Amino acid sequence: MAGSSRDFGGCTLTESGNSYQCLLDGTTAAGQFLPSSGNPLTLDTANGHAFRPLSGQQDLFNPAPYQDLQRPDTRYNAGAFLSYDFNAAASLYGEAQYTDERTRVRYEPSGTTATAAALNTFAVPCSNPLLSASEVNDLCTSTGLGPQDTAQVGIGRRNIESGQRTDEFHHQSYRIVLGLKGTLSPPWSYDASIVFGRVNAHETLANDISQARLANALNVVSVGGVATCQSVVDGTDPACVPYNIYSTGGVTPAALRYITEGGVQFGHAQRTVVNGQLIGDLGSYGAKSPFAAQAVSLAIGAEYRTESVRYTPDTAYSTGDLLVTGAAHPTEGAFHVSEVFVEFKVPLVEDRPFAKRILLSASDRFAHYSPQGNVNAFGVGLEWEPVGSVHLRGSLSRAVRAPNAYELFTSQVLGQITYADPCAGLLPSAGGQVPTASAALCARTGVTAAQYGNIAPQSSINVLTGGNPDLKPETADTVTAGIVFTPKSNLLFSADIWRIKVKQFVGSLPGTFTINTCLNTADPYYCGLIHRDATGSLSAGNGASAGRVIGTRFNTGSYGTSGVDFEGRYVWDLASVGAEAGELSFGFTGSLARDNPINVTPGVPEFDCTGLFGPNCSGAGPTSPVPKWRHRLRMTWKAGHEVELSLNWRHIGALSSEFTSSNAVLSNPGNVFTIDSQIPAYDYFDLDGSMRVGAHLTMRLGVNNLTGKRPPVIGFTANPLLINGNLAAGMYDSLGRYLFAGITVQ
């Protein structure tokens, strides 16, 4: 379903005063041509073989009709389950599951961007026979070039003749479980199992462009009056076909076949887990509180887990030759985990005044990760029922998330980004451009006194990206406290307050941010990520001794979140009012967000995203928009076991643009527009029902977003992460009213 199938997704919107305008693309079907001097040009389609100045919105390209608002997905699931009891001491169980999923994404046609960057600048000989006389004047003569010269032209042209790019994904997952459980001599029972899981992934990209072949196809000369690629003349690529983008209809099928490139990448993730545990009631050993009837129960066990990942891109991906898609690099690695764990449940008091039950629970899991090292997760909880209708509970725990194989083992690749090193440059005595940063500031980045003023300036720097096998696990400390109130069997209310703090967050840092922060603050964390070569350069070379900024994944900081969760349930038997019409039940869940402090970038002050959306608060790093309040209220009518009808109310609280925040990191009054600085509270209503027909058939029918409410529109300035559809699709219904139906046969 294309983005333009909904009016709010007809183009990428950007704020303009109190309204929106389309943010269109300069990479157009007619082409944008940027000579070394002068203004942008485009092909004059009315003339057919001449340029005219690029002017206004009418000359730009709208990619939205080519982009998917929702992509098609086909999935097949199959499962089999096994259970066989030999005797009380041994029961065999097993499970096998298989999933096959295919989906395809469509993008706008591939194209270059008309900038002065090397990637988008092409050599166009002034003798190119595909150029008209006026086009030669525009690209060459007017800039002082003669017939034997070659113009360097920034070209932004959409390969509309080849159609949309497509990306097809195929995933197959397998999961096999085999276990044995049973009772040993009382009070002990056991459970031992082995689990194997694997996901195979295959991706096929079509209709991108080869950068190398595009450059060849644009470097055209005349051979006997015939337009011929220079690479054919040189013998470096005899298959080259000229790409005629200087005439309306000039692109031939042969040229398209030559420049078009696709890519394939495939791989798998695999896990094997061996687990065994003993469960026992320790009453027979005298492990019991004198104030409780029940004894201490214990679970103790061990687990061994191995996880591996392998990812292999083809040559088009790995060489970075694909024009739009970018480079991908092989990933391969494995890690192993050995764990031991223990869990206690200790009834402390039972059936005493103001202590109907007091229960203590505790657990600990010690793990050795290879190669990450040792970690420990634990938890302790206390439950207290002073009377039967009141239940108080609280817990303190630590959870661990070890880095996954992708974060650990993605190949480290040295690449270049466009950035002028402020410490590169030659002193006036050397006849060059003076560095823009002082010698004292540059010393922070590793430039010596002898190197300062002698580093050749360049427009790019080397940045090392990829995985990091030295990453440490993330840890999360959680504190909860709550109350459950059940005055009647058909009525329940609970409230739980909680706080989570995550440390050692796994993230990455942009190379430009690293250099600028080191220069401005002398922060040793950032300055330690800058490694200059023997001449002081960050740009020259690409080998092991080349200068670079380290931009791999790191444990960068921490973030937290806290709130209060509410739950309520009430069941009303209509017979109590004389109506033999079944029962009505009400279920309520609500969440009040208290704070959401984020501090994942060293040296950047902490900020809070509660109730905010924007570049930092909508999916960047650990966060997503968190309204201060949201809830669900579901009312269900049941008539016996045959008929069920439910109405569900979903409420999402209001959000504000992060630019309106008083926090210095988020605040940006210049980017606040009344049209989308606030998102009001949203309410959705869903209706669904089911009917049992006979003993083996159940039919279901429902409507989500019953009123067809449209999602809020958010412009590009307010949230540049939302470049497709102009909406926060993860929070709000994107498609409007949604009908579904299903049949279950047992």
Note down, in words, how this protein is organized.
The protein has nine helices and 39 strands. It starts with 12 loop residues before the first strand and ends with a strand. Among the domains are: 1-67 and 110-158, no CATH class; 408-471 and 509-550, no CATH class. The model has no long low-confidence stretch (mean pLDDT 90). The protein is 8% helix and 49% strand. With 746 residues, the protein is mainly beta. The protein has a 21-stranded antiparallel beta sheet that branches.
Q: How many individual helices?
A: 9
Radius of gyration, in angstroms, nearest whole number: 32 Å
* Unreliable stretches: none
Beta-strand percentage range: over 45%
The averaged pLDDT comes out at: 90
Q: What's the total count of β strands?
A: 39
Main structural class: mainly beta
- Biggest pleated-sheet summary: 21 strands, antiparallel
Broad shape? globular
Topology:
Blueprint: E1 13-16, E2 19-22, E3 32-34, E4 41-43, E5 51-53, E6 73-87, E7 90-107, E8 121-125, H1 133-139, E9 150-156, E10 165-183, E11 188-209, H2 211-218, E12 220-223, E13 226-229, H3 230-234, H4 253-259, E14 260-281, E15 297-313, H5 315-318, E16 331-352, E17 355-370, E18 373-387, E19 390-401, H6 405-409, E20 413-418, E21 425-426, H7 439-444, E22 454-455, E23 460-465, E24 474-488, E25 491-507, H8 511-521, H9 524-527, E26 530-531, E27 548-550, E28 554-573, E29 583-595, E30 597-599, E31 607-608, E32 612-613, E33 629-639, E34 643-652, E35 655-657, E36 678-679, E37 682-693, E38 697-704, E39 738-745
Parallel strand pairs: 23-27, 32-35
Antiparallel strand pairs: 1-2, 3-4, 3-9, 4-5, 6-7, 7-10, 8-9, 10-11, 11-14, 12-13, 14-15, 15-16, 16-17, 17-18, 18-19, 19-24, 20-23, 21-22, 24-25, 25-28, 26-27, 28-29, 28-30, 29-33, 30-31, 33-34, 34-37, 35-36, 37-38, 38-39
